[in-house]
DNA sequence: TCGCTTAGAAAGGTTTGTGTATCTAAAGAT
DNA sequence: ATCTTTAGATACACAAACCTTTCTAAGCGA
């Protein structure tokens, strides 16, 4: 049964397979052979596109980051807006955060550089979503502008990231609420 | 020039070499050969003690964790006590935190288990130091006991850990002060 | 329909790391 | 002084992963 994939469709399939390998086994166990097998193809197909492992990992991460765009919630209250964002990140990005961390750590330890250019788009993305939410919250009188320093604005997301990075699992919902109710909201009112 | 190491001294040297390899190249680049070379010995010496790579990594981490014991500061103010602890962790443990994270992530992604038993002693250690500090702060009226939930007590340390895990470098001192003055202290008073 | 591009199979040379076997001589014990 | 243990050197068998080479035939465009 032939049914050969070509061009862009094949490329997507390869990157998806690479991503699955990465999340299934981690960077250390990530091999070209495994990607080839998972994608149901053969080595030359992979090597025609990516010259080596790091090249493929890089593009895989960019590919996944591109597919993950945050939507800005507007529920009417700051609490629900932030919780909605946290829940969305928690549900969709915990694999991404974990793998990125491992990859970036290895990468950094190897090269001494910090490839922030990979993460910057996603970061800017989140910062914009957050600023829109906070502007409305200030307008409604739910938060005071002078309390919204960069650190405070990033705080709930930093704590969620920390939770994911130390537990290697999505955070349970009560933890998200704890972060918002016990730490974040008291600081901005 | 003979001068052969034996017994415990040799074992320490091997574990130190393994730790250096781990921090220099990360878990992914960690090889038995490299440890052998760095320690200036030969394969059988290593294999007589540890049957494989994971075995050695495990013992290396335990070895390093054992050497790292926190002292409880008592400067007279909560702010300085917490800052002192943060500074000490920041200065001595950033390699440990980074490597542990990388190792634990790979380990977890590979095995599906979470080797918390490795980290628990260090964690209990820190919790005790912190509780002693907080008890004095409450007695001095610097913090209210009802604000000191588990999450708040862990907060400055979680934020420092997050900082280290995302930057792969010790945090600059103004970040430590920011964490204490802008986030932690307002929440406990 | 013909022809160009390229997916995918198969096989292999190379490198890198694992773990073992064998031997020598050094350090400490008796 | 002799004996026992074991550090350290060397060599190697084995496996895994890399990446390449060569070939066949499928899919698309002209």
Question: Which secondary structure elements does this structure contain, and how are they paired or packed?
Answer:
The structure is a homodimer of 189-residue chains.
Chain A: H1 7-25, H2 32-39, H3 43-47, H4 53-67, H5 78-111, H6 116-140, H7 150-167, H8 173-188
The structure holds a DNA duplex (30 and 30 nucleotides).
Describe the structure.
The structure is a homodimer of 189-residue chains. With 189 residues, chain A is mainly alpha-helical. Chain A has 2 domains: 7-53, Arc Repressor Mutant, subunit A; 68-188, Tetracycline Repressor, domain 2. Chain A has 8 helices and no strands. Chain A has helices spanning 7-25, 32-39, 43-47, 53-67, 78-111, 116-140, 150-167, 173-188. In chain A, helix 1 crosses helix 2 and helix 7 packs antiparallel against helix 8 (173-188). Chain A is elongated and about 60 Å long. The A-B interface holds A 23-29, 98, 101-102, 104-106, 108-110, 114, 149, 151-152, 155, 158-159, 161-162, 165-168, 178-179, 182-183, 186-187 and B 23-29, 98, 101-102, 104-106, 108-110, 114, 149, 151-152, 155, 158-159, 161-162, 165-168, 178-179, 182-183, 186-187. The structure holds a DNA duplex (30 and 30 nucleotides).
């Amino acid at each position: 049964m032939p049914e050969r994939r070509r061009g862009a469709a094949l490329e997507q399939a390869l990157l998806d397979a690479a991503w699955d390998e990465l999340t299934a086994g981690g960077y250390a166990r990530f091999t070209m052979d495994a990607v080839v097998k998972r994608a149901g193809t053969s080595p030359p197909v992979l090597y025609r596109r990516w010259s080596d492992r790091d090249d493929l990992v890089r593009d895989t991460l960019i590919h996944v980051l591109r597919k993950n765009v945050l939507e800005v919630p507007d529920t009417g209250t700051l609490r629900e807006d932030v919780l909605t964002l946290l829940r969305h990140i928690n549900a969709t990005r915990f694999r991404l955060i974990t793998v990125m961390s491992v990859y970036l750590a290895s990468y950094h330890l190897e090269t001494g550089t910090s490839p922030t250019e990979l993460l910057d788009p996603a970061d800017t993305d989140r910062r914009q979503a957050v600023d829109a939410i906070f502007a409305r919250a200030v307008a409604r009188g739910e938060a005071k502008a002078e309390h919204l320093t960069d650190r405070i604005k990033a705080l709930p997301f930093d704590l969620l990231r920390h939770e994911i990075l130390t537990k290697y699992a999505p955070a349970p919902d009560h933890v998200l609420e704890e972060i918002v109710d016990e730490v974040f909201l008291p600081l901005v009112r």
